[in-house]
Amino acid sequence: MSTEIFNLKKYIDIHDFFITADIGQNHNGDINIAKKMIDILTNINGVSAVKFFKRDLDLCLNEEQKKKPYINPNSFGDTYLEHRKALELSEYEFIELKQYTEKKGLIWYSTASDINSLYFLAKIGCPIIKIPSMSNTDIEFLKEVAKLNIPVILSSGMSDLKIMDKAIDILKDVLISIMQCTAVYPCPDSKLNLAVLKTYQERYINTVLIDDALENNNIEIINQWGYHPYLGFSGHHTGVCPEITAYHFGARTFERHFTLNRAMKGTDHPASLEPKGMDNVCRYLKQAKESIGNSNKYILPEEIPFMNKLRKVL
């Protein structure tokens, strides 16, 4: 396991955002496609990390799901188990992709959907564990995550505040980001519910207090609050405007599914961004931050030449 704990606060202080391209299983079970995606992301200014998805199919699927016929244009097998197996990368391929990503200068991490996958990711030094919406009600799993002392990004899809309260309480010592998420693929803009980020901020964190605690090493305050989750947004929509909205509601961590081509065979591709879309997310977020300025209204030095030229009364 990695001995250095990933510090999201320090990262965001330097880079403004933590933007993850979620490859998930959009590699279609082919490590060469995965590497090509990483190569492209390396050249998109603003991408912080790439994320994959690890699951143990024996734990994640019941017998009925395994045998269920799965014949459709996006299927990679005749049954749902065969389909899911075709999309899985081996443990050796996971290790290879971790090393490949890190050599390219990006952060690599993964979703863990079950305890076996969690233990594997911990063993290979995964710096962040993403808990998907499908697993945020699995109490025993969450308790095992909390024991590992690995930073956690928590997704909130398919959840209400009661579910979130329980998960956050279990993970409070390792939690670094709460992601607003609507588990619809693709998700209409009207279902994103980004205003709930304000609810998260009021319910779970006091940003100024925690920042002061971290900066001044105030142990009493740190112990009082216990954790400092940054707000985040994990989107499955088709455009890039909602990221700007989420930013203005306090989100600083962002996650979008990434694909080489939205028309590729597979279920997640239509709800993913192609390279140009991912580049737009990074550029528009940076532009949003630069455009805010401050709350004072004054004459800028750059305005004076235009003021002298255009105003009749100075």
Identify the notable features of this structure and list them briefly.
single chain, 314 residues, alpha/beta, TIM Barrel, eight-stranded parallel β-barrel, 15 helices, globular
Helix-and-strand structural type: alpha/beta
Strand residue content: 5-15%
Number of domains: 1
Output the helix-strand order: HEHEHHHHEHEHEHEHHHEHEHH
Strand order in the sheet with the most strands? 1-2-3-4-5-6-7-8
What is the rounded distance between the termini? Answer: 67 Å
Name the CATH superfamily assignment: Aldolase class I
> In angstroms, what is the radius of gyration?
21 Å
Helix content: 40-55%
Mean pLDDT: 91
CATH topology: TIM Barrel
**Which architecture would the CATH scheme give at its second level?**
Alpha-Beta Barrel
Largest sheet composition: 8 strands, parallel, barrel
